[in-house]
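Q: What would this chain look like folded?
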Amino acid sequence: MIQQMLLKSGLGIGEAVLSFLRYIGQLTILFVQTLVCISSTPLNGYRFLAQAQRVGPGSFFISSLVGLFVGMIIALQMAYMMVQLSAEIYIPNVIAVSLTRELGPILTALIVAGRIGAGITAEIGTMEVTEQIDALKAFAVDPIRYLVVPRFLALVIMLPVLTLFAVIVGIFGGFLICSFKLSIDAHMYWSMVFDSLVIKDILTGLIKTVFFGMIIAIVGCFEGLNVRGGADGVGKATTLSVVRSFIFIIMFDCIFTFIFYFLFNA
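A: My prediction, written as structure tokens:
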């Protein structure tokens, strides 16, 4: 009995691993097809600008608002510890580095994945179940070039811009707490911020967001293109798109953190 249970458990794990690898392979194929379309066909400027406006200005307020509150939260949490150690002067350093390297990129990516990634999947999924994508193919229009490429480029270009603004607003939020709660001089705060940041801190955060944008676009478009089952299928695909985007973003963030740590600290 126990052997049968272990055997079934092993088979279940094996099937899950194979399913995951198959899914990664399908995403990789879509990613390669997207890159081929980008390099071989001219870009439709209007469709790209429409998607860029949706990703960038459309998400600017919420990403900046989250950045502001996160900066204030970090300042308050660090103040609780640093004041006991009489080291509150180092709070600006912690705020600047943590937001630039880690919290700014990943929080902005998660916000955009929830807002834009879900929208991409719902939009393309609705086109799939209403046979609009089949109509595009009937008119010899490549769905990847027409639907995936503008969204892919918009996310890859606009997500670093959103992250940069979120980090700036977050550092300003930390300044509000340090200035009014901890009585840290404004000139000293900004001096500590600029002294603590180096070019590698900014680059590591922005490089991460480029890959996060690729993940959101490819996962969202793939789930939308593979919707089955009508409106219920669109809802399930949208949920899967957000959940899987979150998982891949956090997974790749961990991988890149390891790479950058050993690369810059070797």
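Residues 2-40 form the longest helix (39 residues).
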